From TrEMBL:
Residues 5-66 form the DUF2007 domain. Pfam families: DUF2007 (PF09413). It comes from the Bacteria. InterPro entries: DUF2007 (IPR018551), N-reg_PII-like_a/b (IPR011322). This is Putative signal transducing protein. It comes from Draconibacterium orientale.
Length: 69
């Protein structure tokens, strides 16, 4: 990933990545979703959510709400 971006969330489930994406984008935070799922074997790999470093703390707090922490 390019400099200036930080991974704040990782999941093996596409629906959780979509929920995190929708939550962060609705808060006005730009994100990048890196899909590392194997195209042949959907049980392997992760979805990683990256945000700009300046949005890190706000994004982490929003994700905590999503996780119920």
């Amino acid at each position: 990933m390019e400099k200036g971006w930080e991974m704040i969330f990782m999941t093996a489930h596409e629906y959780k990545a979509e929920m995190a994406k929708d939550l962060l984008e609705s808060a006005g935070i730009k994100i990048v979703v890196l899909n590392q799922h194997d195209s042949a074997y959907q049980n392997f790999g992760e979805y990683k959510i990256y945000v700009a470093e300046e949005n890190r703390n706000e994004a982490i707090n929003l994700i905590k709400e999503l996780k119920g922490e």
